[in-house]
Amino acid sequence: MKLLHIDASPRTVRSVTRKLSSGFVQALRLKYPGLRVTHRDVGHHPPPFISDAWVGAAFSPADQHDPAMKGVLHHSDELANELLNCDTLLIASPMHNFTVSASLKAWIDQVVRAGMTFKINESGDVEPLVLGKKALVITSRGGYVAGTDYDFQETYLRKILNFIGIRDITFIHAEGVNQGEKEREEAMTKASFDLLNLAKTW
Ligand SMILES: Cc1cc2nc3c(=O)[nH]c(=O)nc-3n(C[C@H](O)[C@H](O)[C@H](O)COP(=O)(O)O)c2cc1C
After folding, report:
1. CA of 31 to the centre of ligand 1 (A)
2. How far apart are CA 189 and CA 192, in angstroms?
3. Looking at the predicted structure, is the pLDDT value of residue 176 above 80?
4. Domain 2-201 indexed as CATH 3.40.50.360
5. What does pLDDT average to over the chain?
6. Is any ligand 1 atom within 6 A of the Cβ of residue 94?
7. Rounded to whole angstroms, what are the CA distances from 197 to 61, 66, 76?
8. pLDDT at 144
9. Does residue 21 line the site of ligand 1, with CB under 6 A?
10. What is the model's pLDDT at position 145?
11. Which residue among 95, 139, 172 has the greatest number of ligand 1 atoms within 8 angstroms of its CB, and so is best to mutate?
């Protein structure tokens, strides 16, 4: 099994999502000794924001790309190919300002690309190209509590992953982690337990 593991927290040792995602990968390694993991740390090494040159190249036919356009798309090609080549996608996503972190959005802008991860067919409809994969998204939220309308993270990630063809998505949330040490421990213990159970059936 090939796993693409995206870490999107800017933090290191205090990061809840990093701790939970590395625990899940460890549990998966026990189940699948041959597991191949590609780790993309966009939190510590954010992909570049897309530029005027990037948009010009990405929205022109590949057979018309000159060396400069190929150069501009090089990073996007690499990231999109990592996604296309995995069996399972694991995204560790901190909630920032009600949604995904800027570094994860930068990764999304690089990989959601016409002709690469989706295409527009002759009738003008969108056809997703990232097929046959399942995804796990681990989130951490400092103050957010389930049931309120401040979550533009799960709704957004579901929609954009669906758009490119990933429909089998599981979300595990650690919520209220900045409400106090006790709340943080409880949220992390519950999420870790859910992740260990999930790893058994993954
Ligand atoms: C810039 C920033 C914005 C944040 N915005 C939110 C928010 O909108 N809602 C929330 O519940 N927590 C928010 N938090 C708290 C984080 O979601 C929480 O600390 C979480 O654990 C981050 O994941 P990490 O520990 O892996 O970095 C924010 C934290 C930062 C640093």
Report:
1. 31
2. 5
3. yes
4. yes
5. 97
6. yes
7. 45, 49, 34
8. 86
9. no
10. 74
11. 95
Ligand 1 atom closest to the Cα of residue 15 is 25
110-155 per-position pLDDT tens digit: 999 999 999 999 999 999 999 999 999 999 999 987 888 999 999 9
SS3 180: coil
**Cα dihedral: 95, 99, 105, 111 (round 10):** 100
Q: Find the mean pLDDT for residues 33-56.
A: 98
Residue type, 25: V
Is the C-beta atom of 140 inside 6 A of ligand 1?
yes
- Binding site membership of 16 for ligand 1 (Cβ less than 6 Å): yes
Could you tell me which residues are beta bridge partners of residue 39? 5
In testing the pocket of ligand 1, which one of 9, 90, 96 has its CB within 8 Å of the most ligand atoms?
96
Residue ranges covered by each domain of the chain: 2-201
pTM > 0.70: yes or no: yes
For residue range 84-101, what is the model confidence (pLDDT) as tens digits? 999 999 999 999 999 999
Q: How far is the CA of 28 from the centre of ligand 1 (A)?
A: 26
Q: Which residues contact 36 (CB under 8 A, 6 or more apart)?
A: 1, 2, 3
Neighbours of 201 (CB within 10 A): 6
